[in-house]
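Good morning C.,

I know you're traveling, so I'll keep this short. The sequence:
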Amino acid sequence: MGSKLEKIEEKIKIEEKKKEVAIIEREMKNPNFWTDREKSARESKKLSNLKSEIEEIDNLKLLESLGSKEEFNNALKIFELKVNLSGKYDFGGAYLSIHSGQGGVEAMDWAEMLLRMYIRFCESKNWKYSLLNETKGEEAGIKSASLEISAPYAYGYLKKESGAHRLVRQSPFNADNLRQTSFALVEVIPIIDSNSEIRIEDKDIEIQFFRSSGAGGQNVNKVSTAVRITHIPTNIVVVSQSERNQSKNRDIALKILKGRLAEIMERETIDKIESIKGNYKPATWSHQIRNYVLHPYKQVKDLRTGIESTNPNTVLDGDLDMFLEAQIFL
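The tokens, ready to paste straight into the viewer:
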């Protein structure tokens, strides 16, 4: 196992990172370093991430030297996952949105089941999350909902959940319990910090304010606090109505818009690579990624990796690790 750890150290260029730490720490001693707030914040965050990675390697070496085989293997597996999450935004948080497909109440109920699944997953990881938007269905379920997930590597873990999720079950909404197929679309975009190189010009956006229809009671609906931003060049529309403050909702909407633009830019780079490989599929309704079958048999199967589970109830209760990890190592 020592050789495996050494290969990981070589892969992530740990010695070069130690040199980077020394350089940044030396620069931070210069008073001029702090005059540029954006740069100093960016470098401070970089230093923190580098030190964290070096510390993890040191802890792995300690566990290995102590002969704690099981503990070492578990820690090494977690670290390997992080090493494979090397995308530009993989280390940060994520916005996860769910949209019900065609099929009325069945699809809206399925969308709500997925929302619960991802919330349970976040809770199992002790990840901080908040419900940004939720549009309820007329009879049951939800038409759409968005989560803000603030946790290290949340985007890296969850980004490949983007795509169509298909449910097959006996319908609980008709007396005959007919077999029903429902679809919901999941979208995952990165949370972009304020120091990002992505800039949005005022002339490129159209902002509208309206009364919130979300949770919060009558007080929410008295004032137009909800915000809808349209990005004119791409026609992307973003809505935020989770806060009672118009300014806060505007800030959230702009952050989501930045995330969408960043995801598009990253996807364009991936597209070029994947198109050469010949296996690129966009994260759209046509891109079905996973089947959840509750009847006539029980199975959850990922259509990309072939990973499957015969216990869909456990999966729908948030046990997603086997599917996420298979995608990361794919």
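Safe travels,
E.
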